[in-house]
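Researcher: Structure prediction, please.
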Amino acid sequence: MHKLQTMILAVFVVLAPFISTCFADTFTHRRTGEVLYGYATSRTEGSKAIVQTQEKGVVKLNLAEWNIVADRLGRNNKIIILTLEDQIMLQIETLAMEQAITRASDEGPLYIVLEIDTPGGRTDLAQRICAAIAEVSNCQVVAFIKGGKYGGAISAGAAVALACDKVYMANNTVIGAATIITFSETGPKDFKKTYGEDVGEKFSSIWRAYLASLAEQNGRPGLLARAMVDKDIEAIEVAEAEKRLFIEPVNKRPNQRIVHTWSKKGSLLTLTAEEAVKCKIADKIVSSRQELIRDLGAEDAEIVINDDINRARREFKRAKLRLNKLNKSLDLKI
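Model: Predicted structure follows.
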C-alpha cells in the first residue's frame, strides 16, 4: 500500500486564547511614578519580564505594577524584514522562522514586517508559524502580501497573514482559498472525499473556527475567514444603523439592508487586494515595501533584512544534494 502524503492547506489546531499585544515603550510605576523608556522582551524570570531600558539597561519588572504606554520613546529605530516566499513544507525553514520572529521581537524594533508569497503548505508547520506570531506581545508583526511567483497568501498562507497585527497587500495579489485537501501520487484530492464526510467535516470544522479566530483577534470578519475554508458558506454584508455586519443570508433581519454579497454557495472565498480592504480582511493596498514603511510612519528607520529562512532553505538543498550523491555512490557499489 502506497503511503499517502497529506498536505492540508490549512491549520489543524486546538483553539487556544491569544495573548493581547502590548507594544510597550514607556513604563510608569503605578505607586512611585518612576518612568522608564524601553521595550519588553519575550524572556521572563518567574513572574517578571526582562525589559531593556535606556536608564538602567536590562531590568526585571513585574509588568502588573507598571502603566505601559505604546510609543517609540524607548524602541530601536529599525524595521526587521522576514520573508515567507515558498511552500510551507520544511521543518528547517519553520524552525528558522520561529526563531527569527522571537529574536526580532527581542531586538525592540518599531515593527516586524513579514513579506508573504506562498501557496500554503503543511498544516503542522503553518500552525507553528501562526503560534510564533501570536506569542509576540512586545512588537507589532505586519504582513505584507507582496505577490510574486504564487500571487499572494493562499491557503495556509492566508492563516499566517491573518495571524499578524496588520495586513497590507500589493495590487494584483489575493488572499484566501484555505480549504483542506490531500496530496497523493495522483494529485490533489478533496479531504472529505479521501477520508469520508464525517472525518472530513470534523477537521474542516476545527479549521473554520481557527481561521475565524485568527481574523477576529485583530478585528477582521470571522465569517469571511470561514468562507475561505468552506464552499458551502454564504456571506453577505449588511448595513444596520451605523454598523456594517457580515452575516449569512439566513440570519438577515428585515431592518438590515444588503450592501454586498461576498461569498456564494459553491465556491471558496478568495479576495483580491481591493476586495480584502473593502471588507476589512486587509488594512491597505501599497505598491512596495517603501510605501508600506511610509504608511507606518517609519521612513527614517533602518531596514534590516533577516535572511535566516532563505539560508535554512539553502542548507536543506545542499544537504539533499549531498544525500543524493551518497545514495548514488552506494548504488554503484552494490
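Model: The mean pLDDT is 87.
Researcher: Thanks, that helps.
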